[in-house]
Amino acid sequence: MNQKVAVVILNFNGKRFLERFLPGVIDRSKEIAEVIVADNASTDDSVDFLKTNFPEIRLIQNPTNGGFAAGYNRALKLIDTQYYVLLNSDIEVSEGWLQPLLELLESDTQIAACQPKLLSFADNAYFEYAGAAGGFIDKFGYPFCRGRLFQHVEKDVGQYDDLFEVFWASGACMFVRADLYHKFGGLDSDFFAHMEEIDFCWQLKNQGFKIMYCPNSVVYHIGGGTLPKNSPRKTYLNFRNNLSMLYKNLPPSFFSYVIITRLFLDGVASFKFLIEGGVGDFLAVLRAHLHFYRKLPALRAKRRIIQPKNVTRVFKKNIVIEYFIKKKDTFDQFDQRFFS
Do residues 7 and 35 make contact, with C-beta atoms less than 8 angstroms apart? Predict the structure, then answer.
């Protein structure tokens, strides 16, 4: 098959999702893309299930489970196409979902990646936590979405139905140029999982490329299929990877101020976990910081390669203050001048 687009689903012990969603992905992508499953050394019977029920689907078997980042990096090296779609296995795609994404990237060579509108599979009326209508970070590196601030998820009433430049596209469903993916090293394998797509999009922005949200494409995401939101393991990965991402990508003018402030804020967050009875989360933050200090030499080397610059679409205020103190719980309440 000689297609411009490869839809690549990374699977780890996700047979239940493949049974439920893969037929729809194949049916609604076949006119535009080849659908490929990359298995991350699953220990369930995902591989046997695919070979028996979908023998026509190309299956890439990674030898070990290196996480989301390494899993995709290994698989995508074996796929020769113009565009990749990184698609979670727990996503239902809508009819005609690919065409708007393809048309968007083909309309402007400066657009490196984009994402569709991500709605909740459980309740289609609401945005989904991990991506919603496109991602941003604030000046201290805290990520949030258009349509989702912290745990507050908005109902979709068409308020974000405009084509919009964002800071990051969700790894749950990211449409990206294959040549740029490989040119900039793909996802950082050291992240294992969580925030690797934000880090990657930041590197693309450092090179002058744009990341876009495309409302004309819609998918429905279950979310939390691998790690639940209240998992100490997830807390560890989020804090660890966020610090690494900041160290790699912050421009020199903000570097020291942001890093020092974040170390303090993370300390506050860890004690908040402890007071609320989250001993596992408290320890997870401590472990994340110990890992960060231990990896500083490697992070310095990555930073020298990236050569960070000032980029657009970073929210120049603190999302924590805006949300918890000023009680702004929707994206459209923010002054857009602070995203320039």
Answer: yes
Residue in the block written with tokens 């296995």? 89
Question: Helix, strand, or coil here: 235?
Answer: helix
Average pLDDT, the chain: 96
C-alpha span between 88 and 12 (Å, rounded): 10
DSSP state of 317: S
SS3 sequence of 95-136: CCCHHHHHHHHHHCCCEEEEEEEEEECCCCCEECCCCCCCEE
Could you tell me the residue range of the domain that residue 278 belongs to? 229-308
Regarding whether 241 and 160 lie in a shared domain, the answer is: no
Written as six digits, the tokens of 79 are 């796929």
Task: Name the token pair of 133.
Answer: 């209508």
How many degrees, rounded to 5, is the angle at CA 221 between CA 217 and CA 227?
A: 145
Same domain, 114 and 130: yes
Residue 185, Ramachandran bin (φ over 0: left; ψ between -120 and 50: alpha; else beta): left
What six digits make up the tokens of 144? 């949030």
> Residue 19 CB: number of other CB atoms within 10 A?
12
Same domain, 239 and 134: no
- The amino acid present at 136, given as its one-letter code, is F
Q: What is the pLDDT of residues 26-69, one digit of tens each?
A: 999 999 999 999 999 999 999 999 999 999 999 999 999 999 99
Confidence (pTM)? 0.96
The whole-angstrom separation of Cα 38 and Cα 331 is 35
Task: Tell whether 258 and 117 lie within a shared domain.
Answer: no
Tell me whether residue 316 is in a domain: no
Q: What is the pLDDT of residues 121-135, one digit of tens each?
A: 999 999 999 999 999
Strand order in the sheet with 152-153: 152-153, 148-149, 143-145, 135-138, 314-315
What is the C-alpha to C-alpha distance for residues 195 and 204, in angstroms, rounded to an integer?
14
**What digits encode the pLDDT tens for the residues 203-257?**
999 999 999 999 999 999 998 655 556 789 999 999 999 999 999 999 999 999 9
What is d(CA 225, CA 270) in angstroms, rounded to the nearest whole number?
25
Q: Are residues 245 and 183 in the same domain?
A: no
